[in-house]
Amino acid sequence: MSENSTFSSHPDTTPTYSPSLPHESRVGSSAMSQDWDVSMIPGPSGEPEGGERGGDTAITEEVRRLRRDYGKYRGEIRRLKGEEEKLRRGQDKLKGKCRRKDDRIAKLEHDIAGMSGVWQEMEAQTRKARAMEEELKQTKELLEARTAELSAAQTFLSTADRLSEMEVLGIVRDLNENIFQLAVGLTDAWEKLEPSQATGPIEVDLTSQPHDSVLVQLARKRDLTGLTYLLQSFLCYQAVDMTSSWVRNQESGGLGSVYRLLSASGEHCIINTE
Amino acid sequence: MVEEITTKLSELLAKAGSFPSSEESLEFVQTVALGKIESTIRTTQRLESAFMVDVTSSDMSLLYENPDTIFDDAKMTNEFGSDSASRPGMRERIAGTTEVGVKKRICGGPGETRRAEILLKPKVVLEKDVVGDGE
Questions:
Q1: Do B36 and A235 make contact, defined as CB atoms within 8 angstroms?
Q2: Each residue of A52-68: pLDDT tens digit?
Q3: Which residues form the domain of A30?
């Protein structure tokens, strides 16, 4: 119900109120379409006397009731208006809150976007740190390996000779003497063998076994000097082979890596197997 | 090592026709020369240790000349000395090596090449001295 609600009277009842109605001239004409203001209806003191009293009383009662309703409705309207105003203020307040929340959400979204960028950067930094850590680990392992190799190499590079050349040559002469004694001893013992134990002299043409050395062919002819030289030459070869075996063994293991590095560098003295 | 050298010596003697078989040859070598073989191997091992451990300022190694190599007075010594004069215009062949020699290789300074120096020439016998002109 709105504030402008009106009460329209029926045309047949309006003439009974004509003496006291302030807008009498309007009755039957323009008043027919006018909205009635209930406050303009006169009270019981203005009511007419006579035979129409019973109908008037009803009307009056109806008017009173309408007036009460009107007042009640006006109060209700005022109350609803207040309520509406209150709701409007609440709505405005909520709208303000919503705007603030929206602003807050926008700000948080902006912050999240910023944090996302920071997170990606942190991830990239973490990956980079891990790669550097791995690189450092490999470098440490390489350093340990190189340190071990250097330690082994320093044995060769920094230690002073413990034997002089003369002492080494003395050992070589001992070796040659041993070889000579061994060869002569074998030849002498063989010479003393019974003919049945040893193969007799073999008549060999020196050109018949071209793949054999001259000394082998002489030994076949029971030439004792040739046999001695043959044994000496063989033992000399074995001695050379034995003294260079270390290098061959090291090429396949142990200090092989050190040996190969030093050999390749050309800066250090390593025995040559040639 | 002793067993290896013993076996190789017996095989050599068998190949040279000194024994009917390598088994008899092996028995002969083991009976006659085992002690001397052990002594020779010990000396060789001592020399190997000297080359590898005791001498580090240079690389030392033994020298040996293969049979049929042409004699070179700068690198080897004749077993028979200067009495065995080379025949004019002849390139004398080596019959065998009777004594090993020694050489050392020394590093020069940075950028310099290594140089070798013979400390002891190997002693060799020439074919002409063991065979003779008439054979």
A1: no
A2: 677 788 998 898 889 88
A3: 14-95
